[in-house]
Prior knowledge:
Oxidized Rhodanese, domain 1; 2 domains
Amino acid sequence: MFVSVDELNTQQAKWIDARFSLQDSGEGRRLYNESHVSGAIYWDLLKDLSDMSKKDGRHPMPEKDALTELFRRSGLELDDLIIVYDQGGSPFAPRAWWFLHYAGFQHAVIALEGFDELQAKGLPVDTLEPSPARSAVQPVWNEELYASREFVEQTVAGDTGSRLVDARSAVRFRGEVEPIDPIAGRIPGALNFDWEQLKEDGRFHADATLREQLASVVKPEEEVTVYCGSGVTAAPLYAMLKQAEYPNVRLYVGSYSDWISKEDAPVEKG
């Protein structure tokens, strides 16, 4: 999941640059063009890691065929060491990592360091966009990591035994403020763990205190389904739960924005 590059054989790695800005959708690509880890492929949140033609929330999940094509043109194989990075302390590398995890890439990790820190550590950088040899990789999808809308509906009805955990801020969770989606509130029955709590001084951390905070919301032996507004900021919460050795975790990629897209979908406030 989250790993310092100091612990990795970076010379044998394949790199994915997932930098992005929700406020400026072109920023990640501009930063990549200015400088990136040598050999890194750029994956864009909107163009590669979402299917914006769909109506299933604000960052809908791409079809498996599209993800397979992304992996193949990126030259990836299932047994590759793949290091994904972004600005550091952001949700975009975890989002990219989750798709790799879902597809069966067992050695994909999220760099704890953002690009500036990677460069400061002396990793080679350049402005060249690589053209990797196309692979014929065949993903091995693990559906136990994915929560469909139907699964979440069954969870709300009490039929799955999974615990919903909302990764948004407490004020959005309670429905007091909603700056993005048209309906304020949360999916009924959800608990709350603000993804910003996963960070310390702008960097993800996984110490004993954080594990205690997570366990105070949901126990490791419970099955957990995480969501946020659009499936982006829930990805680091998913990754951190796995880091904390929670064995049964799912991600509702459509998240709250998908949930409220259905007329008369129930929501809770307070």
